[in-house]
Amino acid sequence: MRASFYDGPGRFATGSVPVPAPTRGEALLRVRRVGICGTDLHIFQGHLDHRVPRGGVIGHETFAEVVEAPKDSGFVAGDRVVVEPVVCCGACRACRMGASYLCYSLKVLGVDLPGGMREYYPVTTDHLLKVPDALGDDAAAVIEPLAVATHDVTRAGVKRGDRVLVFGGGPIGALIGLVCRQRGAEVVVSEINEFRLGLLGTLGLETLGRGRDAVKFVNEWTDGVGVDVAFEVTGRPEAVRAVTDVVRVWGTISIVAIHAEPMAVNLYQMFARELTMHGSRLYTRAAWEEAIRLAASGAVPLAPLVSRRIPLEALTEGMQAALGGANVMKVLVEL
Ligand SMILES: [Zn+2]
Ligand SMILES: [Zn+2]
């Protein structure tokens, strides 16, 4: 079978290896689609070399079909599934608190452990969730980022009638916007990329484009009150600088972007308005289940977010294009 191997910063090599035999508790999957996300771009640039081994197989947004599964596992050949990639210890403080996705010894399939960028993939069945037939293959491959978004929106407590500002309209920012709208909130997404602005518009999301001042906009929108919730999904210092200035008294700020460097925050506003700021990462099992429900019912459209499909052999070029600011939203590897 074909598989893509991480060969150090800037390089993936496609090679041929034997089809793996599933061991105890594992189903053998035939992979159909794997999403490429921001984490994968960090891996590509060598930022996660302390976690991803040379020769490692990445891919944590996997949609596949079951080839064979253990008896009584609840899965049978032909089932369409997505892979929940979180591996936890079950014993540490986080796991005992019910936050196993933040396990102190957390491992992620497709980062620390082998992922889905290959034709056949053995996975223990407790990591699998069934995909309803109503969902197409492209949409199914976007369930993982949708689970990120449902987790983020739940943690931020967004409710009907809220006003929400999302800084950053890439795949995760767009999905957060769509989930907030589904919950009955009014949403505006701030983004600078023209292609993404156009796509957000076709999804019916209000946007704030390049050169528009978010603080000034929110003051006009809310008569100086501020939005109920703001999400920081850009990783950019300008957004972090502005985020505490756009939220109302007792409002909520959710940090979703991965900030590798310390950033300047206006803490006066945190104090003056008694704001709550929290981080939001990965997902609970409940977030996955909600994501599948929202996708299957059509409440959150996923297929329009897929702007490109590439073959496994084009992974290096696909990553280079994404890093170069190509006109894309979600890119999938199609097997
Ligand atoms: Zn991801
Ligand atoms: Zn643990």
Cα distance spanning the termini: 11 Å
CATH-level-4 superfamily name of the largest domain: Medium-chain alcohol dehydrogenases, catalytic domain
SSE pattern, N- to C-terminal: EEEHEEEHEEEHHEHEHEHEHEHEHEHE
Largest sheet: 7 strands, mixed
The tally of domains stands at 2
Question: Would you state the CATH class of the largest domain?
Answer: Alpha Beta
Task: Provide the residue-averaged pLDDT.
Answer: 96
Low-confidence region ranges: none
Strand content of the residues, in percent?
25-35%
Global Rg: 20 Å
Q: Label the structural class.
A: alpha/beta
- CATH architecture descriptor text of the largest domain: Alpha-Beta Complex
Q: Total number of helical segments? A: 11
CATH fold-level assignment of the largest domain: Quinone Oxidoreductase, Chain A, domain 1
Quick tags:
17 strands, six-stranded parallel beta sheet, globular, 335 residues, 26% strand, single chain, Rossmann fold, Quinone Oxidoreductase, Chain A, domain 1, 2 domains
Question: What would your notes on this structure say?
Answer:
- The structure is a single chain.
- With 335 residues, the chain is an alpha/beta fold.
- It has two domains: 2-142 and 302-334, Quinone Oxidoreductase, Chain A, domain 1; 149-279, NAD(P)-binding Rossmann-like Domain (Rossmann fold, 3-Layer(aba) Sandwich), CATH 3.40.50.
- The protein is 27% helix and 26% strand.
- The protein contains eleven helices and 17 strands.
- The protein has helices at 38-44, 93-97, 137-140, 143-155, 171-182, 194-202, 214-221, 237-243, 267-272, 285-296, 315-323, and strands at residues 2-6, 12-16, 26-36, 62-68, 80-83, 86-87, 107-108, 120-124, 128-130, 163-167, 186-190, 206-208, 227-232, 247-255, 276-279, 306-311, 330-334.
- Strands 3, 4, 5, 8, 9, 16 and 17 form a seven-stranded mixed sheet that branches. It has a six-stranded parallel sheet with strand order 12-11-10-13-14-15, sandwiched between helices.
- Helix 4 (143-155) packs across helix 10 (285-296).
- Bound molecules: zinc ion (2 copies).
- One zinc ion (ZN) is lined by residues 37, 39, 60-61.
